[in-house]
Amino acid sequence: MTAHNIHVVPHGTGWDVIQEGARNANSHHDTQDAAIAAGTLDAQREQVELLIHGRDGQIRSRNSYGHDPRTVRG
């Protein structure tokens, strides 16, 4: 089973934490900071990437808490 990334997205006057492919949000928060904190915990637990969207819906940052897909060469 493949884990799905978690997104922090604007919803109404607040912010939702939602997993890719889910119909409903994991949680809803009044502030983006609170949603990011909750989303970070979810992403760490699931070992997936957290994608943080701005009010315009565009991804403004991302953090990986799972297996980083990039190959690092030294």
Describe the 3D structure.
It contains one helix and five strands. The N and C termini lie far apart (32 Å). It has a five-stranded mixed β-sheet with strand order 3-2-1-4-5, with helices on one face. With 74 residues, the protein is of the alpha+beta class. It is 20% helix and 35% strand. The protein has one helix at residues 32-46; strands at residues 6-11, 14-19, 27-29, 49-53, 59-64. The radius of gyration is 13 Å and the shape is globular.
Which characteristics define this entry?
74 residues, 20% helix, alpha+beta, globular, single chain, 5-stranded mixed sheet
Describe the secondary structure blueprint for this structure.
Layout: E1 6-11, E2 14-19, E3 27-29, H1 32-46, E4 49-53, E5 59-64
Parallel strand pairs: 1-4
Antiparallel strand pairs: 1-2, 2-3, 4-5
Count helical runs. Answer: 1
Number of strands: 5
Strand content is 35-45%
Helix content: 10-25%
| Largest β-sheet summary | 5 strands, mixed
Distance between the termini: 32 Å
Low-confidence region ranges: none
Q: How does the helix and strand content classify structurally?
A: alpha+beta
Radius of gyration: 13 Å
In short:
It is built from one helix and five strands, in the order βββαββ. The chain has 74 residues and is an alpha+beta fold.
